[in-house]
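[job 4471] stage=fold_predict status=RUNNING
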Amino acid sequence: MSTELIKTGSPIKVTPLKSKIAVTGSIESLVPYPPGKPIEELERELGITGSIKLASNENPLGPSKKAVSAIERALTTLHRYPDGSNFYLKERLSEVLSIEPGALIFGNGSNEIIELLFRTFCEKGSEIVMGEPSFAVYPIISQASGAVAIKVPLDADFRHDLNAMAEAITDKTRIVFIANPNNPTGTIVEAGAFDSFMSRVPDNVIVVMDEAYAEFVSSSEYPQSIEYVRAGAPVVVLRTFSKVYGLAGLRVGYGVANPELVGYMDRVRQPFNVNALAQAAALGALNDEEHLRATIGNNKTGYDYLTGELVNLGLAVVPSEANFFMVKVGDGKRVYTELLKTGVIVRPMASYGLGEYIRVTVGTPKENERFIEMLKQVIN
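[job 4471] inference complete, writing structure tokens
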């Protein structure tokens, strides 16, 4: 039989199902995470070129050269399955974090580890405490798994209200999620408040510190959450190579937790969940301190420039410790749409219940200047 592909021209529409297929109730009503369009498609639709994307909190400097070189070296071994144990990456990261290798678990982005937490420690009816607004994936996976999302509003400064979150814990609570820095607000909970919160959390409740943007934090009050793991507390710290390391397209993240918790999650983890190129690139990125410093430096300089310009325009900026921030612009959807027409892509916050705000990722100096220039035109 010939293996030559037959070209048929236009796609053929699939016939609708003849009968209703049973779907889990929690899935039937679930609203999926809305993916954005590729930049190239937006440019084609709007008739523009040279767009800049300041919407997804990516690294504007790109990946480390050492990571790219590691990928190139790994290309000739793609006929082999990846290392299911992430052996070399785990050994190197354990050195960087000064923690035993058994306390590390890797995933297809840190999102997969969030899913593993649900699959391992939750059941239908389990309660999951989280901030509101916070990372959109928490309530999505809660609903998909049949768990109950207990959403606790942020305080007046857009920070997690740890007192209210502690009060929300019941005997049905399995996990508490704290995004620190929080997405989309960029704010952090400080060490003293976190210590007080942990003293109120029952020993059978897992506290997840989602620290995807931890490397950008400059505050001396940032909690040292891995110390809780070392002390034997049921704390899971999530980190990622998508942000500061510039490997968002490869999807590799990790968790730091008590080896007993890791052992349970490993029972349900797929054996080859982190692909070979992602492992090679992450290992290369870990060994490139120069790229790490450059990324953090670019973010600090860009953040200071952007927030200074915005304040001069009379706009309120929510103080952030991440590589993004929220700014109050009035009609966020209108500003987003008008900026889009100029080739500047930011994130409107209406879906988070913050319609007066947009979220902006810190870019390169040229990108930051262009954003300010276009925003001035839009608000005027």
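[job 4471] summary: Residues 44 and 211 are 36 Å apart (CA to CA).
[job 4471] exit 0
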